[in-house]
Design brief:
Elements (H helix, E strand, L loop, with lengths): L3 E5 L2 E6 L2 E4 L10 E4 L11 E6 L17 H14 L8 E6 L11 E4 L3 E3 L4 H14 L11
Parallel strand pairs: 5-6
Antiparallel strand pairs: 1-2, 1-4, 2-3, 5-7, 7-8
């Protein structure tokens, strides 16, 4: 095994051969449980993990809310579309709800991990484009990116 990641509720340590190094911001611990991973890379359970901001601010708030932009319906649409295309499940795509992602001023927010690609959208056709282009074919939808 080229390397291992040790996990404990208080720390994570990467161990390559007999030399251990503590990952940044994490303390070392004793009697770890080991999980095999490629050196210096933590594998993702999903190829793409997508989070839709569904935050609803109080009425009269100075900041906008993604929930006021049909975010719940768009998250449900994305989840349905991913299932229709056979992309859902372990090792594939997961569509999740999220609380505030702190990007509401830029439109309703969606983030796709592991890349950290941020999108906004107007309607279901934008969601379809994100699903079919990015999630199904690995091509980022430039026109919908928040950070261009």
């Amino acid at each position: 095994m080229p390397g291992a990641l040790a996990y404990h509720h208080r720390a994570i340590t990467y161990q390559a051969s007999s030399t251990a190094r503590v990952l940044p911001g994490i303390r070392h611990f004793t009697r770890p449980h080991f999980y095999r991973l490629a050196p210096d890379i933590m594998d993702s359970f999903y190829k793409y993990h997508v989070f839709f901001c569904l935050n609803q601010r109080d009425p009269g708030s100075e900041r906008p809310s993604c929930a006021n932009c049909n975010a719940q319906a768009m998250q449900e649409h994305a989840k349905k579309r991913v299932k229709q295309l056979g992309l859902a499940g372990p090792g594939q795509v997961r569509i999740n709800k999220a609380g505030c992602l702190d990007r509401c001023e830029e439109g309703p927010a969606v983030v796709v991990y592991p890349e950290g690609t941020w999108y906004t959208y107007v309607d279901a056709s934008d969601i379809d484009e994100i699903v079919e282009s990015h999630l199904a074919n690995g091509k980022v939808v430039e026109r919908l990116k928040i950070d261009r």
